Amino acid sequence: MLKTTGLQVAILLAFLIINVGCHDRLTNPVYDDSAYFPLEVGNYWIYRVTTETYVTTNTSTKQTYQIQQKISSSYTRNEQVVFVIDESTRPTDQSPWKLKSIHTVYKNLVEVVNQEGNVPVVKLLFPVSATTSWNTNLYNANPPALLRYQDTGRPFSVGKLNFNDTVSVLGTNDSTLVSQEKYLRVYARSTGCVYQEDRSLAFCQRSADCIGKGIVESGTITKWELLTSDRLP
């Protein structure tokens, strides 16, 4: 009968541990959370933007146009790669793009920071998890505003586009008898932001007949819906 030495047992156990580890990595791959916010020079995203503005009770005006965000260049600052994004607008598909603004964004292993008008905001914080929350105004003087993740890894559809793996970023989401506030962003893995919604509404308080009935007196609802991108799967 063959005798097994202590050294042979140790080698066998090490082999089994390595084998199990490799199997786990194959069956449970580790995803790069930063893929929810891809950044490469030349990337572009075109959105249909709809803004609904209430100026009189329950009567609104609606404006629809397109916004293109395109990464035009990059540079290195303090060993951090910073991407320059040109934002252009046009009223219809047939209209030429007009440059509206330029801002920068960078990401690392910890966060994604977007800077518009010298105001840096933290768009995402890693890791992406239902337990992760952060102050988007951490690097500026504005009041703290808490963001958190929701619906991690869920499918999401916008228009004719379908995404299998998305995560929602939720900020203020309050609705009372007086007002409604909402901040929502949806990011798709390897594509980026595919939908966003901002609501800031004031409900009618002028008489007992309108209080509590959801009658909008003033405010805006703005939605961005992705139309196309070079990042589409």
Textual characterization of the structure:
The protein contains 1 helix and 12 strands; from the N terminus they run αββββββββββββ. By secondary structure, it is mostly beta strands. It has 2 domains: about 1-30; about 30-230, no CATH class. A 12-stranded antiparallel sheet has the order 6-5-4-3-2-1-12-11-10-9-8-7, with no helix packed on it. The longest helix has 22 residues, at about 5-25. The radius of gyration is 24 Å and the shape is globular.
Mean model confidence by pLDDT? 88
- Overall shape: globular
With helices defined by DSSP (H or I, 4 residues minimum), what is the helix count?
A: 1
Largest sheet properties: 12 strands, antiparallel
Strand order, sheet with most strands = 6-5-4-3-2-1-12-11-10-9-8-7
Q: Work out the oligomeric state of the chains in this entry.
A: single chain
List keywords for this structure.
57% strand, 12 strands, mainly beta, twelve-stranded antiparallel beta sheet, 233 residues
